[in-house]
Design brief:
Length: 123
């Protein structure tokens, strides 16, 4: 059983997160990897991956729907607990509050506008 499948992003105060490796997920959605060079426990409600007593980690992804202009945020949680009854990895949906949503949307528009315009042509 998964420990959780949804969390909230605690307020993102600036646009210091980096977006890397844009990839098409389908004909309308681009995903961006967000490297975790920060303590993720400080950004996600209820997360405890940075404890010294475990080897758990997460991979964070931002999803951008070009047609709708909407964002989604999520991460894959990798657990190394050794518990055979628990999954070794699972997806978590992240709820975004409005200010953080706007910061991330602006980051895509400023950093990837030209690329997205090029990609949004015929597939």
């Amino acid at each position: 059983m998964k420990p959780f499948d949804k969390t909230k992003l605690l307020k993102l105060l600036d646009n210091s997160w980096n977006l890397e490796d844009p990839e098409w997920m389908d004909s309308n959605t681009v995903s961006f990897y967000i490297p975790t060079w920060f303590n993720p426990d400080e950004y996600f409600e209820g997360l405890n991956v940075s404890r010294q007593d475990n080897d758990d980690y997460i991979n964070i992804y931002l999803y951008y729907d070009i047609g709708g202009g909407t964002l989604g945020l999520g991460f894959v949680y990798f657990t190394n607990s050794g518990n055979d009854d628990a999954p070794s990895e699972f997806d978590v949906i992240v709820e975004l509050e409005r200010d953080s949503y706007e910061i991330l949307l602006e980051k895509i528009h400023l950093g990837y506008k030209e690329l997205i315009n090029e990609w949004s042509g015929p597939q």
